[in-house]
Design a protein that fits this description.
It is built from 16 helices and 13 strands. The protein is α/β, with parallel strands linked by helices and 418 residues long. The protein has two domains: 224 residues, Rossmann fold (3-Layer(aba) Sandwich); 174 residues, Glycogen Phosphorylase B (Rossmann fold, 3-Layer(aba) Sandwich). Helix 1 links the parallel strand 1 and strand 2. About 9% of the residues have low confidence.
């Protein structure tokens, strides 16, 4: 028996952020496994090098919104991934724009109608569902008003209720998005409760969906020794990992200060990624200065720069403990990556507790201070020593095929009432 609605979904992700890109890919794969025809429209600067093989799933790097506020973050800069020529020829990657360089004046002119153009294109394509993945559409900002006028069937994933680093107009922007959508997906009950408090007019639209584990990151257990050797890390050392965009809400400084109280030479903190205010010459400049000031250079390793899915996978293979002492979280992709790779996870209870509590490798800390984090590290080191170093028990609830099925049922419940 076929599913009544939806039969076709387009996922729209204008952001060049690698984490949202991988999330969108996993969601698309789960939808496709449920028999839905899925198109993904993502940024032209997408660095995700996944090659689509499912017959129900197509991925298009076509959105030209550079989103200046995001690209100002040097840890997120990067050239578009170069796709496999054979894949290009097969039509998996396609563009709605000519390959030739677009003049600057034309790019500025297009800003005033890009959003409407996109909304009209999606309406003409007659998708059952338009599923947006980020509220800030940059030069596509008129998309939301055009979508309401065209009555596009919008559902939206609330990755963050409000941005972690606030800017004027953020509340109005999110209000506009939440008003446009007929359904809002959030990743936990605490996030649902906060959304209800901040945007009560839209509380009835919100439902929870789990955040699933990853398939896009290849398993490379043989890389463990090689990566550790490259960072001059002993084979028997316990490696603590902080990675990605090193933003204030991730509380990486607390991990650094916590290392002062860890009186062991066989515990190494590895920090990989980049800082929002860094320079191209050193993406971890501020972190490097702090590590030097408190005198723990011998127990910290720094790896500045962007890591693709293979590089990130190898980093996780080399690590033992993932550090997530966040000050705030609405649902962490890094948490799910740690679960995917079976790592012990030191985390605060800041919006992540539902997914984290189902995972046997989670070590919750009482707070976000360096002392709290140090205590979590000590517990994690003891658990690593007791073994095993990797945990191979993941809840079937975190499989994207199951998650997508739940979401489709929620969408089918809402759409006929529009």
């Amino acid at each position: 028996m076929s599913r009544p609605l939806p039969q076709s979904v387009v996922l729209v992700n204008p952001l060049g952020d690698f984490g949202i890109d991988t999330y969108t890919h996993e969601l698309a794969r789960g939808l496709a496994e449920n028999g839905v025809h899925v198109d993904v429209f993502t940024s032209e600067i997408s660095r995700l090098k996944v090659y689509v093989t499912h017959p129900n799933y197509r991925r298009f790097r076509v959105l030209g919104s550079s989103l200046p506020r995001v690209l100002a973050d040097s840890s997120l800069r990067g050239e578009p991934a170069r796709s496999d020529p054979s894949v290009e020829a097969s039509g998996v990657y396609r563009s709605l724009m000519p390959a030739a360089t677009i003049p600057v004046w034309w790019s500025w002119a297009r800003k005033y109608y890009l959003g409407s153009e996109l909304a009209i294109y999606l309406r003409r394509a007659r998708y059952d569902v338009v599923w947006t993945q980020w509220p800030d559409f940059g030069p596509y900002a008129t998309f939301w008003a055009a979508s309401r006028w065209l009555r596009l069937p919008i559902v939206h994933t609330v990755h963050n209720i409000l941005p972690h680093e606030r800017n004027p107009g953020d509340i109005a922007m999110c209000e506009r998005v939440y008003r446009t959508a007929c359904l809002l997906f959030v990743h936990s009950t605490p996030v649902l409760e906060e959304l209800t408090s901040l945007f009560p007019a839209h509380a009835s639209k919100a439902v929870t969906m789990p955040f699933g584990t990853y398939t896009v990151y290849p398993r490379r257990p043989e890389a463990r020794a090689r990566v550790r050797n490259a960072f001059n890390i002993p084979a028997n050392a316990v490696v603590l990992l902080c990675c990605g965009s090193i933003r204030p809400y991730k509380n990486v400084d607390a991990c650094i200060y916590a290392m002062v109280g860890i009186k062991r030479k066989d515990v190494i903190l590895l920090i990989a990624g980049g800082e929002p205010e860094s320079t191209p010459t050193d993406l971890l400049a501020q972190t490097r200065v702090l590590v030097r000031q408190i005198g723990i250079e011998d127990r910290v390793r720094l790896h500045p720069g962007f890591l693709d899915e293979t590089g990130m996978a190898e980093l996780f293979e080399a690590a033992d403990v993932l550090m997530l002492p966040y000050l705030k979280s609405y649902g962490s992709g890094l948490l799910m990556l740690g679960i995917t790779f079976g790592k012990y996870i030191v985390a605060t209870r800041t919006g992540m507790e539902e997914s984290a509590s189902r995972y046997p490798g989670t070590i919750f800390v009482a707070g976000s201070t360096p002392d709290d984090v140090r205590h979590g590290i000590e517990l994690a080191v003891d658990r690593v020593a007791a073994g095993p170093r990797s945990i191979d028990r993941v809840s079937p609830e975190l499989d994207w095929t199951s998650i997508a099925d739940q979401c489709l049922n929620e969408i089918g419940r809402v759409l006929p009432n529009r």
